[in-house]
Amino acid sequence: MPATANAKAPVLVIIQLTGGLDFMNTLIPYSEGIYYDSRPVVGIPRETMLPINGTLAFHPAASRLKDLFDAKKVAVVQGIGYENSSRSHFRGMDIWHTCEPTKIATEGWVARLVRELDSESANPLTCVSFGRGLPRALAAPGVTATSVGDLDSYGLMTPVQVREERESDLLLFKRMYTPALGAGLVMDYLAQTGRDVLKGADRLKEAPAKYSTTVEWGSNPIAKALRDVARVHTAGLGTRIFYTQHAGYDYHSHEPQNHGRLLGELCGAISDFLQDLRDHDAADEVTILAFTEFGRRIIDNGSGTDHGSGGGAYIIGERVNGGLYAEYPSIKRKDWLNDEDMRHTIDFRGIYGTVVEQWLGVDPVRIVGGQFEQIRPYREAATA
């Protein structure tokens, strides 16, 4: 893993973009005439785009992400996906959460990573998720992941209220996953997890009191979540993985308005987050991984776009060697998958493996279920 200037342990911040971010309207192949022919309604006017080279441009709402890209702090992974991509939100996200495209798995990839990072379960705050419910990626028997709806209200809760919120999150997990996993496996998980979550509650309550900032954070959900990440990270509670979610990307209709709004929220929050960490001398040890469950179809539906494949992911941070990675999927008609989708050009498990091995220093085979092609998104440096 790259050495951090302050010699602190590397930290991973995961941002789940729920619903299926339209990669083709985020990093736009503006030199291709077929882009404009295929998207008469949702296509972005060329004069408003933010070019990065002679063929690709960012959406105008992603200006703050482009600023980070220009500063070489954003690695854009083009064409991420897997064979036989599922167009189901539930199954598609389940595959990304478990690294198992062909069968129903019982453990999340982040939970397996937590087990490697904290094999003795010594710190219930090794992994903290902001948002209601427990993401499948964080679930495995015997692994504790602390889930926080809102850090400010969490700090005011009594132990009984904390326990009730945790039970509510676990019941939501039970309702979601019993049909896929079966009641036995789900109940086994619920019986073995979450026992130590109350131990971390009092420590989390310390974080807001220790934090001050000059950053003018937004009021949208992803800004609030990343602000909570900044508060916990700078409090030095030993968290190695943070999990956040930004929802709303399933825009079958009204995509032009919603896509621009969501991108603006996301890119602004990420930029503010990195600035806040820099102000606290706490940015060097952090990498962000932003992903979504699939891309969108090439041709618009008259108001939005439908579920597709060949999406994008983003690795962001001070130690990142920014640029374009993997290949942008061909949008020539002869290359379309199922006569309507972009084909994936790199397996998502290789990108997970990249971060797990190159950033966190953990053998990725046990985490992602095999060896997959990786990229090299970090600046060369001696191992810390």
Describe this structure in words.
By secondary structure, the chain is an alpha/beta fold. It has a single domain, classed as Alkaline Phosphatase, subunit A (3-Layer(aba) Sandwich). Helix content is 36%, strand content 14%. The chain has 13 helices and 12 strands. It has helices spanning 33-38, 63-70, 89-98, 109-117, 151-154, 159-181, 183-192, 197-204, 206-210, 221-234, 255-279, 348-359, 365-368, and strands at residues 11-18, 27-28, 50-51, 57-58, 74-81, 127-130, 146-148, 241-247, 286-292, 311-317, 323-325, 346-347. The strands form 2 sheets. Strands 1, 5, 6, 7, 8, 9, 10, 11 and 12 form a 9-stranded mixed beta sheet that branches. Strand 3 (50-51) and strand 4 (57-58) form a beta hairpin. Helix 2 (63-70) packs across helix 11. The radius of gyration is 20 Å and the shape is globular. Residues 192-196 have low confidence and may be disordered.
